[in-house]
Please model this.
Amino acid sequence: MALHSASGALRLAEALRSGVEQMRLEPNCNGRPLGITISIGLYTARPDRLITPLEAIGMADQALYRAKQNGRNRIEVADAGAEPPTEPAVVPQ
Model:
């Protein structure tokens, strides 16, 4: 998704995370509404650095795994200066 700034991407990701957290689904078998959360891995490309789409996905994927490891229901931002992984965690078929 093309946005104008890393801070804009982070604001959008937080709005999405917060919106999902506030949703309540149909009552479960105990009669209570079911809450859900999401974790987001965010990578923002730098204009001075060429990176392939697959490398960008790999960077976001690594950030997503950090978000899950650090407690879930959170956003982790990939380091734009880091080297992209040689292979994504999930290879598209």
